[in-house]
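Hey, weird one. I pasted the Cytochrome c oxidase assembly protein sequence into the form twice and got a warning about non-standard characters only the second time. First submission, copied straight from the form history:
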Amino acid sequence: MSWTPYCGPAPAFGEWRWNLDPILLAVLVAAAGVVLWRLEGRRRGYGLAAVAVLAVGFVSPLCALSSALFSARTVHHVLLVGVAAPLLAAALPMRRYGSLILATAVQAVVFWAWHAPDAYGAALSNDAVYWVMQISLLASAVWFWCAVRSASAPAAVIALLAAMLAMGLLGAVLTFAGQAVYAPHAYSTLAWGLTPLEDQQAAGLIMWAPAAALYLFAALWRLGRMIGPDAEAHPV
């Protein structure tokens, strides 16, 4: 099967190709404009930072590199759910965003589902499916971080630790898998000095350690706010 990912064909080693899709660029510029127009202070800063992270993921050479390496795609997804999403959540108004348990479960299910080999292959062979993947990953993660932000500290810590376990477990599964399971990267990794299995193991380690650590750090921060001397004076 010929894979035609949104970010273009897998680049050759050392090829750093930017994605200058005019529609994507227009959406990012419009998003930055809305942030500048509607938000102020720290919320504006968080919103602009989120747009910048999305630009790194979708415009920078990381986009093309993710066509070659599943590990690069993993970095891309971690930027979405672990960096852009909490920044967007911080830019939104503080209010209740529904069930924290449901938000935690939905984020985990969506992330796991899109890393199933068949779903992942579909996303790399059809632009519409690709954008459904990206939008659902980001939207479910924004919901999760909004729910965490508005929850009590004990509930937030538990939810963050649950998200950490979900991310780490998927990483462990990929790291210890006996064979490569992602068909779109069956040959694209070789030019970058990795076998498909090595690339998959690297992706698993990224999820298992630094990606899961993002949730752990957030849990520790909320725990510190809960037990700190100014816990009541500065609600999160």
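That's the output from the first submission. The warning seems to come from a hidden character in my clipboard, not from the data itself. Residues 179 and 197 are 6 Å apart (CA to CA).
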